[in-house]
Amino acid sequence: MTLKELWHRLGSPRWFYRFSGPWHVALGVLAALLLTVGTVWGLVFAPPDYQQGDSFRIIYVHVPSAIVAQSAYLLMGAAGLVLLVWRMKLADMVLSATVPFGMTMTALALFSGAAWGKPTWGAWWVWDARITSMLVLLFLYMGLYALRQAIPRQETAGRACAVLALVGMINIPIIKYSVDWWLTLHQGATFTLTEPPSMPPQMWIPLAINVLGVYCLFGANLIGRLRVEILEREQGTQWVRELVARQAAGGGR
Amino acid sequence: MSFSSLAEFLAMGGHGLYVWSSYGAAVIIVVYNVVSVRLRLRRFFREARDRQRRQPYPPGHAGGSAGPAAELVTGDSTRS
């Protein structure tokens, strides 16, 4: 299947529902494996930091959740663009299905950051550029959630959310470069494309595993939410009715 | 392994409160995301099944199957 064919088929929620079933399961299993290995390795086997001691182990929660929260927002921005330009139904569904995961992961990044800041900097919270821009990200997710609830007509809600998601994209480079542009307590990026990590492999390998794991979790969760969303929006169609009838008779989905 | 006893592991070098509350929050958020989707899927199938039992055919249905039949009717009307 070429990319162009895939693009056309993505216009059909029914095709996406059929195609995504195996991916949903595979990504879910992979996420469970990776997150278990990465977390146990990071919590039990990684050596303590020479300055921070064991509190540095919060990194295995903090960094993956912060990275995936921003990636989820990037995906929403892309979906918003696709929705406004091509009016693809699936893009609208991606726009709404990404919000809960992105919002909870942003909250987790902020919470674990506070729990790490207290023993390390002596403060739960500082109004620093990185932390404040992450708080703005949380407000953007909340705004997208509220906006969809506030507008009853699906098409209007989708377009309003697409515009808000696109405007909010300005915040993503601000989060990314906040630690370089402003004087800050927050340390720089752990993983960069140009240099090897500054921590030993026994520390960063489990972190890389958890980052991969949280991306798989995001993929599985997004597909799961999209599948429910497709069923709810297409509930009047013949194929969903047949699916429901098969399910009621004890068959598969 | 970087800890010699379970008590030492739980204490996290005196930072137990911070480390365990972070991991606790992570578990809660992951479980919430997984479970909420499952519950919504289950609720959809339950409600859709009940709806279909009450109303074996969708509203505006004129006999036969819903989707393809409706398409056929509009197709014919544009042709004539």
SSE topology:
The complex is a heterodimer of chains A (253) and B (80).
Chain A: H1 3-9, H2 13-45, H3 59-86, H4 89-97, H5 99-121, H6 129-150, H7 154-168, H8 171-181, H9 201-233, H10 238-248
Helix pairs in contact in A: 2-9, 3-4, 3-5, 3-7, 3-9, 4-7, 4-9, 5-6, 6-7, 6-8
Chain B: H1 6-11, H2 16-54, H3 66-79
Offer a concise description of the structure.
The complex is a heterodimer of chains A (253) and B (80). Chain A is mostly helical and 253 residues long. Chain A has 10 helices and no strands.
Per DSSP E runs of 2 or more residues, the count of β-strands of chain B stands at 0
Distance between the termini of chain A: 25 Å
Strand content of chain B: under 5%
Q: What is the 3D shape of chain B?
A: rod-shaped
Structural class of chain B: mainly alpha
Main sheet of chain B? none
Poorly predicted segments of chain B = 63-80
Helical residue percent band of chain A:
over 70%
Helix residue percentage of chain B: over 70%
- Poorly predicted segments of chain A: none
Q: What is the overall pLDDT average of chain A?
A: 92
Radius of gyration of chain B, rounded? 28 Å
The oligomeric state of the chains shown is: heterodimer
**Discrete helix count of chain A:** 10
Q: Could you describe the largest sheet of chain A, including whether it forms a barrel?
A: none
Structural class of chain A comes to mainly alpha
